[in-house]
Amino acid sequence: MIKRNAPWLAVLLGLVWLAANWWPPAKKTGDFDIATFGRTPVLTDGRVKPLDTVARNSLVIIHGKQTLSLDNGQTLEPMEWLTDALFNSPTASGYPVFVINNPDVLGLFHWQQTQRKYFSYAELAPFLTQIDEQGQKAEGVDSKQRSRFQTAIINLRNGLILYQGLENSIQPEDTDHFANEISAYLAAAPAGLAATQHRQKGEAFDKDKFNQMGQWVDRYQTLSDAANILAVPPAAAGAGEWLSVGASLLQSMGTGQANPAVKAYALIGDAYRAGDASLFNQEAQDLSQWMARSQPHATGNSSFESLFNRMAPFYQALVLYVFAFLLVAWSWLGNNRGFNRAAFYVLILALVVHTFGLGARMVLQGRPPVTNLYSSAIFIGFGTVIIGLVLERIYRDGMGAACAALIGFITLVIAQHLAESGDTMEMLQAVLDTNIWLATHVVCITIGYSAMFLAGMLAIFYVVRGVFTRGMDRDAAQSLARMTYGVICFATLFSFVGTVLGGIWADQSWGRFWGWDPKENGALLIVLWCALILHARWGGYIRQRGLMMMALFGNIITSFSWFGVNMLGIGLHSYGFMEKAFPWLVGFIVSQLALMVVASVPLARWRSFHAAQA
Fold first, then answer.
1. How far apart are CA 550 and CA 459, in angstroms?
2. How far is CA 157 from CA 54, 108, 161, 184, in A?
3. Is 347 in contact with 401 (CB distance < 8 Å)?
4. What's the pLDDT score for residue 320?
């Protein structure tokens, strides 16, 4: 009974798990409505986004995680931490949020290295000058030549600058009652302006009023210069620019009226420091409604992005891919096709969730699916799962499902690590700012990557099953070979078309079709390697084992084209050297070379030798 209904039970379990994670948490009476406040749209890093996204990205950059664990065992969510940073600086400065792993950085402060690696702003405040000086020196060194100390001190300095910018984005960090302060400023502004005008004309003026006005101006100019967040929208949608709170207050000097958003932020902050949840919630709701009237498009996008953040579709898909792979493995161990079908349906569910995440990013960005390395990892996994499902539908032996689940999981793990750099929907590089070519050249190339990695994964299964297990008979070996050959043909088509389209794009952007750029060479290598595999197969130079070994080397070429060109740090397509990714890339290449060596072992030593003659 269970075996027969395994597919539906597995899908039901997946749906229940998704519902449990996606269902919004119940609100408790007396709680601060941080979620509503987190949906407030602001402008930062060139993009309008909700405060919730600012909180998540900032915490990942500073802390390396999207949650903050305190010494008392309490765990803070991103918006809880950001709200404290914005409105309750003394409390936030005590949170252990800054990561220091490098012993030389600890030595700079005369601290002993222990198992502790998270430190608070209050602990680092006495050393800000030293950190800034060392960080500036390190930034003068080429990124590929920096020592571990220099990289660590730059990361710490950047994290401190970001934190200080957040702390002074909405209000001065030393204020107690910002709403009263604003009222006092607006009340004093007319007399201060009059004193300033009299002084400029050479007439007698009130020095006290003039000096007081100068202090106000200096205070809010400093607030404006330090702000990381532009929280005040233009008066009407599409009319004017977003401003910082400080800049908005300076503009209000002559009108006597503060922007409604500034007033709301001040009241929200005062209520939060006073512990008045009822007033906080009312003001947050009023701000949300005002934003919806003045900036309907930005408010709608921010609300949807907050929902997207809470649902975390790529993380949910990652877990479902693991579940699907376990079901495939169980079907192999128990020789039960029911679990194999269950894996197929769970993969479809995971793909639906994956597709939702991909589509949501396209809606929020207004762009095709691939715009940077992060989105390329998301799309490679997406493409691989679709191809793997097609293979599974044709062969029904679990191999397509297993490969799809594994690559879907691995690519989403890679994407999670790439997200540590901050906003994954950042502004595009100028050379990429064209939706037509992003939707054609980039998508074709990325589909080619997906197919090549799937062919390589099939080859890995072939070698591992053939050498180390007795589970690969002649039919299984032939089935894997047919799948690998078909996928390589598919990869050849898309890689070739994508490379040709890239040449046309290059001619339009740079005035030449080809310039031997590393990325261009990487794309060409994939096309040439695919062609070499096919010709070697057609000419009889390779059989099953040779096909698989060449597919394994295809993993190396594809990984170089995908990541390796960024490691070089040169060329028109290189957008940054990623030190953390380099050892993983080298490790992956070494693993594929090792598998090729294993595959070259005489067939007599293969445990499946009698079942799979190649």
1. 9
2. 19, 13, 6, 36
3. yes
4. 96
Q: Which of 467-485 are b and which e, b meaning 16 or more Cβ less than 10 Å from the residue's Cβ?
A: beeeebeeebbebbbebbb
CA 168 to centroid of chain Cα atoms:
25
Q: Does position 113 have pLDDT exceeding 90, yes or no?
A: no
Residues in the chain, overall count:
614
* Global confidence as pTM: 0.90
CB 67 within 8 A of CB 331: no
User: 9-60, pLDDT tens digit by residue?
Assistant: 888 888 898 888 888 876 655 689 999 999 999 999 889 999 999 999 999 9
Residue 165 to residues 10, 225, 245, 393, Cα–Cα distance (Å): 47, 9, 12, 53
C-alpha 38/C-alpha 579 separation (Å) is 33
In this structure, are residues 404 and 392 in contact, taking their beta carbons and an 8 Å threshold?
yes
What is d(CA 595, CA 603) in angstroms, rounded to the nearest whole number? 14
Residues 149, 104: contact at Cβ < 8 Å? Answer: yes
Residue 193: what are its φ and ψ, rounded to 5°? -65, -40
Report how far residue 396's alpha carbon sits from residue 392's, in angstroms, rounded to the nearest whole number: 5
Q: Looking at this protein, which amino acid is placed at residue 397?
A: D
H-type helices in 88-201, by residue range? 89-92, 103-108, 121-124, 128-139, 148-167, 178-200
Residues pairing with 285 in the sheet: none
Q: Which residues contact 135 (CB under 8 A, 6 or more apart)?
A: 153, 154, 156, 157, 158
- Percent helix / strand / coil, the chain, rounded to 5: 70, 5, 25
- Give dist(CA 517, CA 575) in Å, integer: 13
The pLDDT, as a whole number, for residue 576 is: 47
Give me the residue label for tokens 């405060």. Answer: 51
pLDDT of residue 253: 84
Give dist(CA 48, CA 202) in Å, integer: 45
**Which string of b and e fits 405-419 if b means at least 16 CB within 10 Å?**
bbbbbbbbebbeebb
How many C-alpha atoms does 170 have within 13 Å on its Cβ side?
A: 28
